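for the record, two folds in this file. i put them one after another cuz i was lazy. first one right below, seq on top, structure tokens after. the second one comes after a little note so u can tell where it starts
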Amino acid sequence: MTSEAIPAEVGFEACIMDIDVDGLSKGHETRPSDATAARNDTFQRASGATAFASIGLLAFAVPTFIRVAKEHWTTESGVHGPIILATGLWLIWREREWITAHRIVHDGWLWILPFLTLSSLWLLARMFQIVSVESAALYLLLVGSGWLYFGAAVVKRLWFPILYLAFMVVLPASVVDQVTQPLKLWISFAAASLLDLTGYPVASTGAIIQIGQYQLLVEDACAGLMSLFSLSAIGLFYVYLVAGNDSRRAVILMAAILPMAVLSNLVRVIVLALLTYHAGSKAAQGFMHDMAGLLTFSVSLAGMFAADAVVARTVLSKPAQT
């Protein structure tokens, strides 16, 4: 058996043929597989649908936010709206990594009927300028869109921010009247009684306080509506961040919100009545009236923080009995 030597030139040419760059760049161009192309097409369609849905939601949200900002946030009872919006979005933003990791898109078409119903309700409320129904319909549309796009697990995870943002919904005037009427009557009676004990010529009839020659009408804002809803929202936010899983601390803080709001506004009405009696009705209106409201809210908020500190050092420092 004989062996023949292979010329060096042949082996060199074979190596050149194996690594032919021109063949790779021209004659053997790589092409994506059918599966990759299908995934790319699906991603593009999903991105287009997401962009279209986002534009549609903006078409609902922007006009409503503009109306609420002009008609409600500029009033004393709605001044907490921008604060709730900013802090609520922050609560959602800080969960962005968890949301991305657990996002599950819902399939099917069962969502169309409730979305059409809410959209029609929003349109009717928009046409007839019913801002309470319009804001409620938008809120439900946004929550439903979040459930559809991110999944039930994400909505469950964000239960508190969703509940917290519900404070932005404008309440109907009839509900406001029913809630504030007992507060107005009680605050008017209590303020007149306390002033009477100190010797001031004062009397009350319903929500009207007669002090000297002046008459004061205790309105919704003065009756604690602004402090009640603002403190409830901010109190929930504070409890969620500070109390955590401590249910006792959360219950005590939430129970302290209502009496603090009512008592602080009782002091506000008394201060305004004294300003009216000693300096005239003009002195108690305008800037002084607004400053009294801001001071009352600040004192209520500080009182809630102080109560939390006292509770944390006394009640919660002791272990719970089982």
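(here's the note) second protein begins now
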Amino acid sequence: MKKESILKKWWFWTIIVLACIVSLMLCLIVDELINNNVEVAKTGHYEESNGVYNVLLNDNEASEGLDINEKSKEKEDQGETDEKNNESETSLSKSEPEEVNNKKEEKPQTVTKNEENNDEQKENETKEETSQKETSVKEEEPKEETAIKPETNNKTESKPVEQVSLGNTNALEKANDYLSLMAFSKEGLKDQLEFEGFTTSEATYAVNNCGANWNEQAGKKAQDYLDLVAFSKEGLKGQLEFDGFTTTEATNAVNNCGANWNEQAAKKAQDYLDLMAFSKQGLISQLEFDGFTHEQAVYGVEKVGF
């Protein structure tokens, strides 16, 4: 029979594994021993020698305590010598004459009085400085306001000029041409410009910027009417309002035109008689219908021969 090799036996491998484990354990134990020896070499004592180490420390503390006691004794000796010296000095100071003490007491009083005077002078100086500053500030405030005012004027002067369109300029020229020929109300001139083909905005710009005095225009228009035909006061006022003048403008015109309304009634009566025959009462009624008063109508009818 052939013998089997040892490598194929199971117990061989178990022995090898156990041997490895034992070797590892031994290595770990050796490492710990080496580390402990290193610590002992550094400290000089092992755990059992802790008590001796503590005793050495206590001995050092005791030596330090002795040094402290010796120092405290030396300080006490010095304190006693200092007290003796102080007592000797105080005895010497008591023996000095009282005049020196009196002089010493008088000097601080004079010093304090001088200090009080200096403080009062300083306070007065500060008050004067503050009053001067306030007056200077009050004088400077109006100067600043006057300096600011020219800046506002410059701002108003620096406004850009509005550009006027060609249509507005032409409408304005046309309006001035009409006003140089005859009197117009504001509304009448605007209607005339629109009739000429200008837009509403152009006509409005022209009547607003032509510079006409519409009260004067109403007075001129009233005078033109009176030069052509006879009018009563109410009839002329109605005609001016029809032409576009306002009620105030028309009233102002008829009140200031200088017309004699009795004479206007007589002229109107003659105009009617030149056209057709009237009775006295019929002619009076016609004149009253045209706006003359009863007295003015009677005056006019009698003036023409009734």
